[in-house]
Amino acid sequence: MLSRTAEYAVRAAIVLARHYGERLVSTDEIAAIVGAPRNYLSKTLNTLTRRGILVSVRGPGGGYALAMAPTELSIADVTDVFDDARIEGGRCLLADRPCDRKHPCGAHQRWMEITLAARESLVNTAISSLTGTQP
Amino acid sequence: MLSRTAEYAVRAAIVLARHYGERLVSTDEIAAIVGAPRNYLSKTLNTLTRRGILVSVRGPGGGYALAMAPTELSIADVTDVFDDARIEGGRCLLADRPCDRKHPCGAHQRWMEITLAARESLVNTAISSLTGTQP
DNA sequence: CGAAATCATCATATGGACATGCGCAATTCA
DNA sequence: TGAATTGCGCATGTCCATATGATGATTTCG
């Protein structure tokens, strides 16, 4: 359902949500908790930082923190950075002709419902609802 | 959302659904319609045949057909053959401890809801509802 | 029968996700 | 100021989904 990288990212966000407003968490610590390779996760966290989802602080005592409240960050915000989220425009599930809203193929409507339903959950769920410690 | 192979398979199933009870469709014809490499699709169709989802007939005039009515075949039946559908048992989204129904982590319940919701659509939708030609 | 059509299968690329290792850059603190 | 800690970034390696090409096996039909 999610790429491994995106899953690492979501887990990391959950860890950071648990310490939000409290302290920074280092790559090593996050990597140990989420079970990701240290250097690989580093690149992932770096990407999230450049996208404005995390903030980073270098030097001793440094680490990462969420750039916003965990209630304001959806799962989709995190996963979209890694898993391409664009709903295929123009190309169609049936692929025997171009297909869009104006000229939908027989499958178009139904298929959109399915993919959007799956995505809806990710959009509507905040990271805070996955921490298990706060509402 | 789906692997490319699984999507080829779904598209092929839709094509075959349109000709169900009518005639066989060859690999070449399906490949042209769904936009898949001929030999690659061949292997995919072969797998579906071995799983009992399709039937194949060799020789001139041969090809593939659905092994059952398109109303009786769900999208999940097709995709599960290629995309591993097992809901991760034992391992947990948070990954900081083993996690199952008896000892769920904070994210367990919510995450299960999300993944199951996505899958539910695939299970409950029949191939026939994607053909655009019949109910 | 023999040629053509068609599915079945194997051997081998290739591209990208995933992973690892090494060194650089910035910051803190004694 | 210099040593330790931490994030940043590059170079490389590995593995698998995807793709390609060639060949075999089976059936139809003139």
**What is the tally of beta strands of chain A?**
2
Order of helices and strands of chain A: HHHEEHH
Please tell me what the overall shape of chain A is: elongated
Strand content of chain A: 5-15%
- Sequence stretches where pLDDT stays below 50 over 5 or more residues of chain A: none
Largest sheet strand order of chain A: 1-2
Summarize the biggest pleated sheet of chain A: 2 strands, antiparallel
Radius of gyration of chain A: 18 Å
Distance between the termini of chain A: 25 Å
Largest interface: A-B, 32 and 32 residues
Quaternary structure of the protein: homodimer
Structural class by helix and strand composition of chain A: mainly alpha
Mean pLDDT of chain A: 86
The helix content of chain A is 40-55%
- Total helical elements of chain A: 5
Give a written overview of the molecule.
The first copy, chain A, has helices at residues 4-18, 27-34, 38-50, 75-79, 108-124, and strands at 54-57, 63-66. In chain A, α1 packs across α2 (27-34), α1 crosses α3 and α2 crosses α3 (38-50). In chain A, strands 1-2 form a two-stranded antiparallel ribbon. Chain A is mainly α. Chain A is elongated, with a radius of gyration of 18 Å. The interface between A and B is medium-sized, with 32 and 32 residues. The structure holds a DNA duplex (30 and 30 nucleotides).
